[in-house]
Amino acid sequence: MNKFIKFVAALALAFTITACGDNPKADYKKIVDWNQQQQPAQQKMLSEFQTALSQAKTPADVEPIIKKYEDGAKEIIASLDKIDVKNKEVKELKDKSEALLKLSVEIASKSARAVATPLTDEEKAKLQAQVNELQSSAKALDELDKSLNQKYGEAAK
Asked: Does the keyword Coiled coil apply (predicted)?
């Protein structure tokens, strides 16, 4: 009886370890699915933001537009944050995606505020540095995504 209990305990432990192990294909699919679901919302939000900014008549009109955009972006980022991934590589993709989203929102907000209140030369330089960082981060994210797609995407063996 004692051996049977030890066997069952070992079996339960093995199942637990297997269940908790990472599944990179499933994790990558979660990120791909999230991206496909969120892309229309992101595009709509950005389009509405740009349209509202173009129709702003006074500098006071700009801040509520930015707030609405930032709130929508926070919801999108929060939905990404809720995705549970265990695989280290896929987690890196998720984390880099989240960082890129946050940086793009920050840049868009600063640029919109610059319409109402012109930037100093120092602020312009900082904003340009952020734009450069955004571009290089986007390129690195794209390369990581392509690599993971080859390893874990639908066409992967």
From this structure: yes
Per-residue burial over 108-122, b if 16 or more Cβ lie within 10 Å, else e, is bbbebbeeeeeeeee
pLDDT tens digits, 61-95? 999 999 999 999 999 999 999 999 999 999 999 99
Q: Any residues with CB less than 8 A from the CB of 126 and at least 6 apart, and which?
A: none
Break the chain down into helix, strand, coil percent, rounded to 5: 85, 0, 15
Q: Is 15 exposed, middle or buried (0-12, 13-18, 19+ CB in 10 A)?
A: exposed
Query: Where do we find the tokens 């797609």?
Result: 149
Distance CA 107, CA 2 (A): 64
